[in-house]
Design a protein that fits this description.
This protein is an alpha+beta fold. The chain is 24% helix and 26% strand. The chain has helices at 2-22, 48-61, and strands at residues 37-40, 69-75, 95-103, 117-126, 137-144.
């Protein structure tokens, strides 16, 4: 009986230690966007203000990257489209891709699938009616860039 109790205590202690090791994300500081370099190209599809709202949406979405620094967020539009007037910009349902470069000196349970430095491509859709953060954007997908 004594051995059973000792084994149970040992297993509980080991499980607690493993939980502290793998889920220490809450101990790390919030994602650092204080010195993020923002680069927005000319766009035939969106106004600069709407694209900056897209950057804000991405910064909100990156909150899981505690302890990481966001180096750059950029939008580059390749001008395959005919030039449109400003009244034809910001059309709901239009998609945009942003590149995010980051650095994570210490990985945690939320970021352990990332490399310590790298890039992520964020595919967003401008859809003000479905936006949950007030930016007008929603995330369609994101992954290694």
């Amino acid at each position: 009986m004594r051995y059973g109790l000792a084994i149970t205590v040992c297993l509980a202690a080991m499980a607690g230690w493993k939980a502290v090791q793998t889920d220490s994300a809450w101990l790390q500081p919030p994602v650092d966007t204080s010195s993020t370099d923002i680069s927005i190209s000319e766009s035939a599809l969106f106004s600069k203000e709407k694209l900056l709202d897209g950057v804000t949406h991405i910064e909100n979405d990156l909150s899981f990257m505690r302890g990481c620094e966001i180096k750059t967020i950029s939008y580059t539009e390749h001008h395959y489209f005919k030039q449109t007037s400003s009244s034809q910009k910001n059309i709901p349902g239009t998609q945009a891709a942003f590149a995010v470069e980051y650095s994570c000196p210490e990985l945690n349970s939320q970021t352990m699938t990332l490399s310590p430095t790298g890039s992520i491509t964020y595919n967003l859709q401008y859809r003000p009616s479905d936006s949950t953060d007030g930016t007008g954007w929603e995330t369609l997908s994101h992954g290694n860039g």
